[in-house]
Amino acid sequence: MSNTILVGAQWGDEGKGKIIDVLTDQADIVVRTQGGNNAGHTVHIGGQKYVLHLVPSGILRKKKMCVIGNGVVVDPVNLVEEIEGLRKLGIKSGGNLFLSETAHLVFPYHAELDAQREILKGKNKIGTTKRGIGPAYGDKAARTGLRVIDLVNPERFKQKLEFKIKENNEILKAFGAKPLSFKQVHQAYRAAGDYLKPFVANTVVLLHDAVRRGDNILFEGAQGTFLDIDHGTYPFVTSSNTTAGGACTGSGIPPHRMDRVVGVMKAYTTRVGEGPLPTENSHIADMLHAMGREFGATTGRPRRCGWFDSVATRHACMVNGIDQLAVTNVDGLDTVDTIKVCIAYRVGAKRYDYVPNDIELLARCQPVYAEFPGWLKPTHDVRKWKDLPTKTRNYLKAIAELTGAKLAIASVGPGREQTIFV
Ligand code: GDP
Ligand code: IMO
Ligand code: MG
After folding, report:
1. pTM, to two decimals
2. Is the CB of 329 under 6 A from ligand 1?
């Protein structure tokens, strides 16, 4: 029996979807525990590309159970669209997908407030996905949110939604934004509620039954360590705990039932949205964008890119308790002559071996680099560790050692089969 938490060790988009798909082979259940449809997890199987937002990536394999846990914030209209989109691609969700009764709901006023707050912030904006994630978690913390259990109770839902629309329309008017029509929102959400009713379950009880059976559970993290509401580069973060602990609170499975933590990281660094990125480098960004890579899976925005930052991944290893590493996008560096890795930060004469909490200080951090010779060979077709160029192996071993965890997987392409077990 093995319960595995998979987390992003950088700023999101590390290739978690691909690694989840690979590890689902060994799992019985895949659980999303935090975030919402701000996530975009890409999986390539046999020439077909799938982008998952709320549905766990495990849905792509037959006979696996998928759970959207209590810690996730769910836009039900969007979830129905996603399920239907998957159905059109031949992926069925029915009897294999469960939605927690206590997951909070995302409404159009959350998305509108998200957008309005960003406009008001101007140049200090976070660069959110505008999916309403922050305001939805805000309502949850303020104890004024609506949950899935309310959505499937028509009378209660109507009453609560009426109040929420009234309240939020006052706020939207103050922003100079258009108020929402209760009727329209109610109609769309009730229709989604009826559609989703068969999926709704007490997922805590369901998961504990699975634990008792000895099922293997895989917890699919969304976003990444430095987008964590507590441990990230606040305020340039998302509104949930993206680190390993979020898998427990977001599912109801306690810490001592967890067996290992897998950290996914790219062989370089990317970030989408605002906030400090110490190793940002326009040459790498231009190179990757010219290859058609590193555009956001949810918003299509070009991702900011930079060298691998081992100060950051070491920190991620610490807060998540990462046991094993999966390094993705190794092939992204195939054409690079000299590869740099950040091993410390420097501000004036002071050297930092950890990520400073002061965001202004972090923004001033200059990377101290170690250099590695590039392998200058394509790696896409390599399937065995011993067949990777020696310089690639040395680079991967070095970044794993600097991070402080065991290298378990190297990924050399987006496809399921482009995976090397170390
Ligand atoms: P996630 O949010 O962590 O699941 O990552 P995204 O799907 O948003 O972004 C990762 C991108 O990298 C996607 O386009 C994946 O298809 C792609 N990808 C993942 N692993 C590899 C790899 O090893 N090589 C290449 N070339 N692409 C990869
Ligand atoms: P996956 O799961 C990368 C970023 C946004 C923004 C910040 C806050 O695909 O790795 P939000 O809409 O959550 O309030 O935005 O977080 N962000 C992500 N960046 N990958 C994601 O998810 C992200 N989800 C949110 O760009 O900087
Ligand atoms: Mg993504």
Report:
1. 0.97
2. yes
